[in-house]
Design a protein that fits this description.
By secondary structure, the protein is α/β, with parallel strands linked by helices. The protein has two domains: 135 residues, NAD(P)-binding Rossmann-like Domain (Rossmann fold), CATH 3.40.50; 188 residues, Dihydrodipicolinate Reductase, domain 2, CATH 3.30.360. It is 31% helix and 24% strand. It contains nine helices and 14 strands. The strands form three sheets. It has a six-stranded parallel beta sheet, with helices on both faces. A six-stranded mixed beta sheet has the order 10-9-11-14-13-12. Helix 4 crosses helix 9. The longest helix is centred in the middle third of the chain and has 17 residues. The protein starts with a strand and ends with a helix. The structure holds adenosine-2'-5'-diphosphate. Adenosine-2'-5'-diphosphate (A2P) binds next to helix 1.
Length: 335
């Protein structure tokens, strides 16, 4: 297998660092790593495979000689630099939402639709974190019984909003426990000891009353599963969890699928681990998912309110399967 020159754009961020760790953990065949970030990171270094590598400041000339560019530096950076990277011959795998719904850009979760990669034109999109962990679990159920409607509520960790958001939850929790005030800076309201039905933090709400995160789940789920007829409604909520997104998912299918049948299908699904022994209080937990490559599903049960629907609880590390791992898995598929 040939080795690749890999650039990570946003290498100093929460997801970028996970990309470096994931490339290292999976022994990705690379000949050189080029960590890129903003002017703010001039003079910083990252460590990779025991080496200290200087961070380079992203510019229009950053992509000469790069084979694969993993982007996680926000939509604005992707919009400007991903086409430049692709034009200089790199394959871009972009973690932002900039290109996800572009009909010319494959939106890929390798366990679900790796086949979509063959049509790429230099840019491949990595889905929204909440969508990725959900479709990994739903794909085998869709294949077996054809999903007609999904009702999902998310319980999303602060790590998905970056380093400043993690710091805010930690510092605000400490301050409030000490009886001191702590004004929110990243989130629109207090996140410690609270739940916020708004993701993202700013410009979230659309004319239809949904947030942009909720509508990402609607559109991206359909694109990845390749079925625009699936009805999806989502409520996305930020919770005071450091890392690991949880989701309550109700799935209505055309063909009746029992909880036992779903459990059997999911126990064979790639990237999925069934943790479903409620009598012994075994079910997926955000704190246990951190650092894991798998997506966990449990509390699988027949919906008592509908003759052909299931309820379940899906948990995964939002920085890994929801972001860095899926990006690296796409790169592995390209090899
Ligand atoms: P920097 O650390 O230099 O600001 P997070 O979301 O965890 O805060 O991380 C965002 C990542 O994206 C960081 O690595 C950040 O670099 C990078 N980034 C943000 N804006 C730009 C930009 N305009 N050009 C290059 N990198 C950027």
């Amino acid at each position: 297998m040939s080795t690749k020159v890999v650039a990570v754009v946003g290498a100093t961020g929460v997801v970028g660092r996970q990309m470096l760790e994931t490339l290292e953990a999976r022994n990705f065949p690379l000949s050189r790593l080029v960590p890129l970030a903003s002017e703010r990171s001039r003079g910083k270094t990252v460590s990779f495979k025991g080496e200290t590598i200087p961070v380079e400041v992203l510019s229009e000339n950053s992509f000469e000689g790069i084979d694969i560019a993993l982007f996680s530096a926000g939509g604005g950076t992707s919009k400007k630099y991903a086409p430049l990277a692709a034009a200089s011959g790199a394959v871009v795998i972009d973690n932002s939402s900039a290109f996800r719904m572009d009909p010319d850009v494959p939106l890929v979760v390798p366990e679900v639709n790796a086949h979509a990669l063959k049509n790429h034109k230099g840019i491949i999109a990595n889905p929204n974190c909440s969508t990725t962990q959900m479709v990994v679990v739903l794909k085998p159920l869709h294949d077996a019984a054809r999903i007609r409607r999904i009702v999902v509520s998310t319980y999303q960790a602060v790590s998905g909003a970056g380093i400043a958001a993690i710091t805010e939850l930690q510092e605000q929790s400490r301050a409030l426990l000490a009886g001191e005030p702590y004004a929110p800076k990243v989130f629109p309201h207090q996140i410690a000891f609270n739940c916020l039905p708004q993701i993202p933090q700013s410009d979230a709400f659309l004319d239809n009353g949904y947030t942009s995160e909720e509508m990402k789940m609607v559109h991206e789920t359909r694109k990845i599963l390749g079925d625009d007829s699936i009805a999806v409604t989502a409520t996305t909520v930020r919770v005071p969890v450091l890392n690991g997104h949880s989701e309550s998912v109700n799935v209505q299918t055309e063909k009746k699928l029992t909880a036992a049948e779903a459990r059997a299908l999911l126990s064979k699904a790639p990237g999925v681990v069934v943790q479903d022994d409620p009598q012994h209080q075994i079910y997926p937990l955000a704190v246990n998912s951190t650092g894991k490559f798998d997506t966990f599903v449990g509390r699988i049960r027949d919906d008592i309110s509908h003759e052909s629907a299931l309820d379940m609880w899906i948990v995964s590390d939002n920085l890994l399967k929801g972001a860095a791992l899926n990006t690296v898995q796409i790169a592995e598929e390209l090899l």
